[in-house]
Amino acid sequence: MKRGKEGGVNLLSEDVLQNILSRLPALSYASAACVSRSWCRVAAAVLSRPKIASAISLNPSCEDAVKEVVDSVLSRPIRPHFAYAACFGEFSDLELTQKLITKKLGSATPVVTSFTRGTIDSDAIREEFTEVNRNFDFEDCDDLDDFDLTTIRDQGIVLIVGFVPGLKVDAIPLLRELEEPYIPLIDKFVIDIRNYSAAVSGCTSPTGIVMFGGTGADMEHVLDEMDYAMSTETAIWGGRIGRFMYRSGDDSRNISGSLKYYAEAVALVFARDNEKPQGVGETQFHVAMSTGLEPVGPTHKAVSVKLVFNISECSTWLNATKEGINDVLDGHRILNDIYDEMGYGNASKRLFIGVTKQIKCSIGPEKVRWVTALDIYVVQGGNEKGLRIKGSGIKEGDSFRFYRSDYDSVLSSCNRAFEELRNVKQVCGGIVFSCYSRSDPTFFGRSSPDISPFLENFPGVPLSVMRCGRGGLISSGLIGRDNMRAAAIRQEGQEESSPLCSCLRYCATVYLVMSYTL
Question: What pTM, to 2 d.p., does this model score?
Fold first, then answer.
């Protein structure tokens, strides 16, 4: 074919050329964009909006599964700005998975790899939505050699790749020292995020942060510091996901094999690019929550607090007063009053307490400021000794309320999330992080409504759903700061009834919606 000005491909109109380029695989698309300036301009029009591409493979071979999901997400034009891979079932080799994906996408692409309890995503081969709920957790197994892997229902990999024009993305780790005093370097972590954002955008608060926390990570403290340091307009979401690996686009942040530090958590940081080309619009993140927990009964105040340690866990025993009554109540009285509030027959419902705390926070030499935090604890029981709470951190004088989780509260909070999301326009994709227990049909005895707020508002828009946790309510937590609710409250001039904080959320679902405006 002649390539002169009078014939060949130059006779194609821009509309026809754009139609052709939009059907190319990612690598061929990238090559076509280098043919000429006019082709580059048309290619830019093809990939002008944010894009999320994802796929799941149930192939029993790790190498083949990675190839299938990568081939699927790269089957259409996309420039990988970040990637998240999650393994489930037999694939316990995170290092191999991470290595294979990094090789496929390139070392400049930040990648996080972890386990997941389940997912809903497009099958890489059949190109239809597939739901997988993993019924085994490798982290809970002491001896894999004695475990029959044939009992695992599903195994495979899900891969999410994102393109976010106008933003830059990198993975920034939270480091913990391997030698005494073994402290996590939280101040350094927050400062690294702010420095990266400032270098890219000129603003110390990035557009969005996805947090991935290890099982033992002190995420409550981390999130308190982030609430102190980051603007309320910064979208924060993610979860405590257990074991993970990461690769940063900045090799100085990659500490694999270090004898001094290990990564306790990692953040994918999205910052506005001050050097973005002219004509590129704004990519925005919208976070909505379905908490699954509803308050019940009056406010209580802890009067006496005692910690009890055993081999496997720490519990807090407390007595309390309640609003309107000065008498000190023991565990029996407190629980009986709450069950009366809930109604007869609800004594078997799961109960939590939410403790509102005022915490002093500062980063380095900066001025100390108070941050409001809401910490959720599971109620383990109560007797004449007091109310038994799982965990520590409650002090005498702390105020708390009881929370319950049932299908009605889940449905109500999903409806609120639906209403918050319905006014978002120009939506390009979404990622949903959901507590695994909400997908368990034995949990509420009914099917979960989790993904309906997204599917009903944005039919046909790409969506990936990740299940987090080990199946228990309190062994893991989701991270979410509902910036959509905060924006609505500011617009209406109302005061918030609960603190806007990036706390760990239990029995929850976090909706991330990505939109784009010119």
Answer: 0.85
Strands 129-133 and 118-122: what pairing?
antiparallel
Q: Are strands 463-468 and 427-435 parallel, antiparallel or unpaired?
A: parallel
Nearest to 302 by CA among 223, 389, 217, 227: 389
**φ/ψ bin of 448: left (φ > 0), alpha (ψ from -120 to 50), beta (otherwise):** beta
Lowest mean pLDDT among 149-153, 184-188, 321-325: 149-153
Residue 139's CB is within 10 A of a number of other CB atoms, namely 11
44: pLDDT confidence band, cut at 50, 70 and 90?
confident
pLDDT, tens digit, for every residue of 470-518? Answer: 544 444 578 888 665 555 544 444 444 444 566 667 778 899 999 999 8
Cβ–Cβ < 8 Å for 202, 194? no
Q: Do 81 and 56 contact (CB within 8 A), yes or no? A: no
Beta bridge partners of 469: none
Q: Pick from 386, 381, 382, 379: which is nearest to 405 by CA?
A: 379
Note if the bond before 181 is cis, omega within 30 degrees: yes
Nearest CA to 211 among 515, 503, 506, 470?
A: 503
- Would you state the structure tokens that stand for residue 207, as one six-digit string? 């557009």
For 49, the 3-state DSSP assignment is coil
Tell me the pLDDT of the chain averaged across its residues.
83
Q: Name the nearest CA neighbour of 350 among 315, 376, 319, 318.
A: 376
* Structure token digits, residue 241: 């996901």
How is residue 510 written in tokens?
């976090």
Amino acid at 463: L
Please answer whether residues 415 and 426 qualify as being in contact, where contact means their C-beta atoms are separated by less than 8 angstroms.
no
Residue that is written with structure tokens 């085994």 in the block: 136
Which range (364-368, 426-430, 441-445, 481-485) has the least confidence?
441-445
Beta strands in 231-368 (DSSP E): 235-240, 244-247, 261-272, 282-290, 294-309, 314-322, 325-329, 351-361
**Which residue, 359, 401, 404, 381, is CA-closest to 506?**
404
Q: What is the largest CA-CA distance in the chain?
A: 94
Cα–Cα distance between 360 and 436 in angstroms, integer?
33
pLDDT, one tens digit per residue, over 345-368 is: 555 567 899 998 888 888 888 888
Residue 375 has a pLDDT of 84
The answer to whether 476 and 470 have CB atoms below 8 angstroms apart is yes
Tokens of 507: 């029995």
DSSP-derived secondary structure for 342-410: H-TT-TTS-EEEEEEEEEEE--TTSPPEEEEEEEEEEEEEEETTEEEEESS---TT-EEEEEE--HHHH
Q: How far is Cα 107 from Cα 253, in angstroms, rounded to an integer?
A: 13
Alpha carbon 382 to its chain's center: 33
